[in-house]
Amino acid sequence: MSKIGTKIILVTGACGQIGSELTLALRAQYGGDNVVATGHRTEPDPELRDSGPFAFIDVSRRETIESVVDRYGVDTIYHMAAILSATGEQKPQLAWDVNINGLYNVLEVARERQMVRLFCPSSIAAFGPETPRDNTPQETILRPKTMYGVTKVAGELLCDYYFHRFGLDVRGVRYPGIISSETLPGGGTTDYAVEIFYEATKHGRYTCFLREDTVLPMMYMPDCIKATIDLMDADLAQLKHHSDFNLAAFSFSPVELVAEIQKHIPDFVCEYEPDFRQEIADSWPRTIDDSAAREEWGWEPDYDLPAMVADMLEKLGQRHAEGRL
Length: 325
Hints:
The chain is of the alpha/beta class. Helix content is about 45%, strand content about 15%. It has helices at about 15-30, 45-50, 60-70, 85-90, 90-110, 145-165, 190-200, 220-235, 255-260, 275-280, 290-295, 305-320, and strands spanning about 10, 35-40, 55, 75-80, 115-120, 120-125, 170, 175, 175-180, 205-210, 215-220, 245, 250, 270. Helix 1 (about 15-30) packs across helix 8.
């Protein structure tokens, strides 16, 4: 049972990069039967499938959400379903449908049932070319040039509206790029920072789709999960912000990441062939000011760049040696 009185938690997008690991962490904390994982079409992996209930939903169709919520008596939602930046530029109509109409449906379901709490993440994609790129402030210009970014800004405002208008306890962070040793990324501009580890471990070389000097904010998955759960457990009375917390751990460029990997794999080689994602990356911050999160709910990352690289390579190296990579 959660310290906030949660009976049953639902995770949308539970087969995604963050959702899959978040679901397992929540089940470890609150019990497998108390965390309902949901996905759209992707079959869950065995660990996700066997550790608790799973259901297929389409967040753009409210009735599918309502059916699962009512069946299990859900009172808290982690809404992780989304179309990410690179995929969103290729399919902007789909990005709007999932990211905005899906969010609206989740908010309405939560409002109508007077749920305890709702987590709806935003992203550094909410920023744009006119946003200060170094030490990006909590309160700043939000004029993104991608459909994904547009949906994230609209989502922040919509969540804030539901908090002030209806008293729905909605919370969220602006995720940086997330690096995971367990789950492959799903169509984001920061995906190179995950792919590079797999290729370094298996083949010893990688072709990066960003310029070598492209600095972006990043975070290791264990810190991402910790931040998400810690914000949801925070005392509401301490929060001045709600759906738009800046969140940071470390920033680096591809060439800096390559240098760190080469400390462990000296023969690793990386080449650079920037594609359409370079323009997206150039519109995002290099470093983030997350002092509001640190002051209001005690955010502090556990991993820096060297610690993340060492842990990633250790985990992937073991899986590669066992033939599981």
